[in-house]
Amino acid sequence: ARRIQTSSVVSMVRDAIKTKTRVYVNLAQPELADMVAARNVDGVGLLRAEFIISGIGKHPNYMIETGRQEEFINKLYEGIVPFAKAFHPRPVVYRTTDFKTNEYRELEGGDKYELPEENPMLGYRGASRYIRDIDSFKMEIEAIKRVRKDYPNLWVMIPFVRTVDELRRTKEILEAEGLKRGPDFKLWMMTEIPANIFLMDKFIDVGIDGISIGSNDLTQLTLGIDRDSEKLQETFDERNDAVMAALEIAVKTAKRKGITSSICGQAPSVYPEMTEKLVAWGITSVSVSPDMIGTTREIIAKAEAKVHG
Ligand code: PEP
Ligand code: MG
């Protein structure tokens, strides 16, 4: 008989654990979708669109100018479907495109439409783009809508929202295009700018179903450290008291307002012990890298036993 290795027994046991707090996964590459979906995971907490768009390789404005909207929409649709299909009926939270201008410039035709910026990380990105370049955003929405015809488990998350007004206007565009919140469609906002923390109540009052903490950008902006700085790598630490205070406010405010809260930055993947605190504060899901699904489920189970007795 074939001997079962200890490691696979461990993962079988882990895969049987059930928790109230959901374990989601962060994904970008379609070829991983089926394999990861077979695991004990409750959905995709962050589907990064940038990998798909890089694959298309062409700037959205360039596609519009050359009359190839349909081609762009269809390719984006084809890029999203494998995720929505693999995880159906579990939710797949699609994060609308969050390329920075330097990344957009790498796409075909990109240099014509993107002005070079000194600090692209703080530049024309996220929701600030959707409300200024509505035609590109509409193509993205159209692709989402087409996927949702067969896979209504595809939800939407808005990244890098600087002001309450940006969230309101982004939501208005989504609604005008037919993506309205309901039992079948959830709208989330990423919480990754200190302004989101200070004004958490006001952002939530715009009308969203959930928040997901982008701890990578939130740490960068809370500590004022370029997340890619090698020199300051050691100081860039999500366990810093100020960052933890921000996470606590986000999770507790979401709980008080009765909406779901999640985290999709790398923090709980790199520092899994952090998950215990997040659960104690009342987070409703934790989204981690595929290799951390089992460990995170175990930590959550232990943390829930502590919280609920
Ligand atoms: C984050 O900022 O934590 C996040 C998940 O988004 P990204 O890393 O893609 O900026
Ligand atoms: Mg981010």
UniProtKB/TrEMBL annotation:
Superkingdom of source: Bacteria
PEP-utilising enzyme C-terminal domain boundaries: 18-304
GO molecular function: ATP binding; metal ion binding; pyruvate, water dikinase activity
Keywords of the record: ATP-binding, Kinase, Magnesium, Metal-binding, Nucleotide-binding, Pyruvate, Transferase
Keyword Nucleotide-binding set for record: yes
GO biological process assignments: gluconeogenesis
Membrane listed as a keyword: no
Job of this protein: Catalyzes the phosphorylation of pyruvate to phosphoenolpyruvate.
Family indicated by similarity: Belongs to the PEP-utilizing enzyme family.
Name of the protein: Phosphoenolpyruvate synthase
Residues of the full protein shown: 444 to 752 of 752
